[in-house]
Amino acid sequence: MGVGGDLTVRRMGFGAMRITGEGIWGPPADHDACIAVLRRAVELGVNFIDTADSYGPHVSEELIAEALYPYPDDLVIATKGGLVRPGPGVWDADGRPEHLREACEGSLQRLKLDQIPLYQFHRPDPKVPLEESIGALVDLKDEGKIRHIGVSNFNEEQLHAAMRIVPIVSVQNMFSIADRASEPVLAVCEIEDIVFIPWRPVDGGTLASGAVADIARAHDATPSQVALAWLLDRSTAILPIPGTSSLKHLEENVAAAEIRLTDEEIGILIG
Known about the structure:
The chain contains ten helices and eleven strands. The protein is α/β, with parallel strands linked by helices. The mean pLDDT is 96.
């Protein structure tokens, strides 16, 4: 699928939030295992990796560079800025232009990049006008530090407001079989040729019973694989980014792209 008209990625990406410590804080319990997962993802054909400066903080970006630099020519690394981490499990918005500039320049350094292919505003900050936050990213784009701009955790109104300022190539919102509150935002993405990146795409692995589990057994698959297959079927705009620190789960996630759900199964899943 295309991102921004000039980047081509496969439709199963990798979310690099889980290669950090508990509470998405500090280094992972098994550093070498996380390095192996990143390298195996690329071996399996994944060429879109999503991260953020707040994952760790900084840990995820540092591990990506350690594992994969120098990067394959076709690898697209997306990162995000706009959240700060006072402690484990705490996520505070900071959309001030000066913070976003500092965050972006820090990500460039940690990822060893001259330009970030896709930089996403992590969450609107109610204390900062949206046009100021997005304007800061426009300035960074004009300076060549960002290739494309995306947004995350945006509603329809916020997305349209951002689109009036600069072309938006991606939206990253929570979305899964179990949580479809962002359906209206997905609809905008389909109309505007914007990539929709669902975070928590398998709903945290809470689909181990009911219809999803029944369909998984019919396909000799896991419930998480069925959840990912449903997302791929739901819209050609969707780019899932399941994350894991397990090689086994990584391989299962990538294999989910081969599952073909029947119309009857899709009807059951959407209720």
